[in-house]
């Protein structure tokens, strides 16, 4: 089963996720909204996502059979594989970021409506400038490679890998999670998790089959669910 992509190109939009949500009910799976720039790009918890021209900002309408928190990993693995195609090694900062060389290069934001649809928003810093305040924490393909990369080539590789990992998600979620474990670079490291305003420090031990993170907090094993948690490397 290969997805038939239908790409909508926009110059400017508030957020491709918001646009995709507005059209999702009447759009087939595989509808892709790409914008040159977003005026209100967003991350999780309403955080803002810097989206100037030169980056790849897109959202895909998926219609998976059920809501599943592991769906975000389809996007994360597709980004990791896309970066490999351009010679960039990267890893997943559980649950929804992709980092290269200790800096954030991409983020994934999934938003669903019951069993109707799931929007997968993906932002990759490609040739766009990194805002001053994110210089310490963010990077781009341009910064890492020292040259511009054609956006349409990145898009083409990303869609290719998205359809591959989507199929794995549907047919062999165990294999998807095995790959997630391999690519999650925080395993073995000490992390700080903020959950409901409470802080938990521990060693990231594993990503479990349901997508949650296993944390060893002073000898106590805690299962951290993907949700409204923030995670920082210590
Ligand atoms: P966590 O999700 O664990 O809380 P996070 O800080 O990565 O960690 P997110 O909500 O995933 O939080 O991402 C939004 C954050 O990403 C913003 O608060 C900002 O710090 C950062 N950010 C915004 N735009 C970009 C960008 N283009 N590239 C990299 N980082 C960005
Ligand atoms: C995060 O790190 O929290 C996720 C960032 C997701 C950014 C992408 S850019 C395309 C799509 N539209 C948005 O407004 N957000 C996502």
Automatic annotation (TrEMBL):
KW Nucleotide-binding (keyword) present: yes
Alphabetized InterPro entries for the sequence: aa-tRNA-synth_II/BPL/LPL (IPR045864), Biotin_CoA_COase_ligase (IPR004408), BPL_C (IPR003142), BPL_LPL_catalytic (IPR004143), Transcriptional_repressor_C (IPR008988)
UniProt keyword list: ATP-binding, Ligase, Nucleotide-binding
Domain BPL/LPL catalytic: residue ranges: 1-170
Keyword ATP-binding in record: yes
Gene Ontology MF annotations: ATP binding; biotin--[biotin carboxyl-carrier protein] ligase activity
Name used for this protein in its record: Biotin--[acetyl-CoA-carboxylase] ligase
Species per Swiss-Prot/TrEMBL record: Thermococcus pacificus
Origin organism lineage: Archaea, Methanobacteriati, Methanobacteriota, Thermococci, Thermococcales
